[in-house]
User: Fold these one by one.
Assistant:
Number 1:
Amino acid sequence: MASFLKKTMPFKTTIEGTVNGHYFKCTGKGEGNPFEGTQEMKIEVIEGGPLPFAFHILSTSCMYGSKTFIKYVSGIPDYFKQSFPEGFTWERTTTYEDGGFLTAHQDTSLDGDCLVYKVKILGNNFPADGPVMQNKAERWEPATEILYEVDGVLRGQSLMALKCPGGRHLTCHLHSTYRSKKPASALKMPGFHFGDHRIEIMEEVEKGKCYKQYEAAVARYCDAAPSKLGHH
């Protein structure tokens, strides 16, 4: 329940896996406000650095995967905060328009007053001359995820755009499944809603090895375009 979470929550993460056969391992620490939907972290590559690819493809598993830090408005039940103290997991596939493909599995748990994330990554088929492997990505544009219930779990889909040099964008489709460690009967499931996310790499502290990152996220209904039938 949300009562297990404080206005300021620390978190730590471990991310390991391979991208185009290159093994890496990262560790990170940060903190944020789960109820305002903001968080900051510093992540370091402790094995396999400097990364021979754009860190951006991992950053979505750091923060876009840190689902506890989302500001829920309009009375939407917060699936993620309800899942504590047990926590939750998620699986995600990300398909890039240039053929790159990334799968991720994350486990979120609560250790005392600290959130703990463990992430496994497998990335394949990124073109050698593309912006990911050439490390020419600039930033993620803001994105919106649609979220809905399927058989007692929460599903998410989104289209994200990675800004590249020359005003170009590399887009990707994300399909996520979020699973509470509590039974569905113990949760109040949310209806169809949206999650707005802004991920920003604030600083590359050491090239290919250390990054500072920020995210803001809000979950909402489609209030800007009201329904005449009374739907959210």
Note: The mean pLDDT is 96.
Number 2:
Amino acid sequence: MGAILSIIGGIAELVLTLYVLVLIARLVLEYIPLFNRSWRPKGAGLVAAELVYTVTDPPIRFFRRLVPPLRLGTIALDFGFMLTMLSVFILMAVVRALT
């Protein structure tokens, strides 16, 4: 029984680690237009960007509804991404503790 839980925990940790990498890819995709406004993904990059946004949008939107962006003059701090990343790290710690 312990071996099965260890395997399930390992798979869960792998999935969460891959999700962290996808979140980092989203962060990069969101910062590229700040430095090069004319950049648009094309071809395989467009497919990859669409996949990244499709996978990461639901939890980020959930946290944006839960904690609305904080307005500071002309800018707004969006906590959706940070809360999603924090949640994934907490889940990873829980999975490690249980296995």
Note: The helical segments are 2-35, 44-66, 80-98.
Number 3:
Amino acid sequence: MLEYHLSGAITSELLIRDQPFELLRTDCDRDGYDLVIEANGIIRHIQLKGQVLGGTAREVTAHVNLATKPSACIIWMTYDPLTMRPVSYRFFGNPPGEKIPPLGDRIATHSRGKKKQRPDHRVIFAKRFEKVADLEELVDRLFGRRHPDVSALIDHMAAQPEPTEPWLAAVRTGRFNAIPEDCDWESSAVLAHLIDGYALLEEQGREEAGLFADEALSAAGKTGRWPGGARDLWIALFLEHRRWRFASPHEPDPGQRTLLDTLVRQLREALTS
């Protein structure tokens, strides 16, 4: 019951934020987690713990398999016994995208019978958990807050033609970790054209595409880094592909190619951070 209340509350908050998500439930928690939720490019394996309002438990146990997951965490809920709804939350985990903190060395024991050790489980004391003010803060802890520029890009891409390649379709819905880590200038044309750079510039009242592209390239040439956040970087990538398309059959020289590879890398970092 608690699991359904919590998963419903989290996914409702994600819907309010217009963040796409996927939710998976496990039939049993033998691997250490009850829920898997993916949102904002983050996959969370979540172990749920419950305590009745007024309870005095000072510790919980967790399966060591949690440490093998990319961004596992434990949510310890206090619930009202009359409504069976959570009334407060505690969180054990790291920022989105980081592995769970070390579980410690204290081996758990069975709570009944001869108290035999459970070698795959560790004891985690309540003092290691952080209190969370409300559900909104909990979702922030789980998946972070999406930058307004990124939200605007997702809205913009929704109005563009739908791509056929699965990874591009995932990127179009905001799952930016689908961008290959080895994506470079040579392979980034399809990524660049998920947006209409001219339309995005017009939305910002910056209609001089040539001037925007030249200023961005000049700054990158001086510093080795392209200026701006995710939206400006994506526009710059779009415009650079247009520039070199019209320059055909000429190709970027090695120095230019390095700078363009940097642009692709910066864009991926800006979208997935």
Note: The chain has a mean pLDDT of 91.
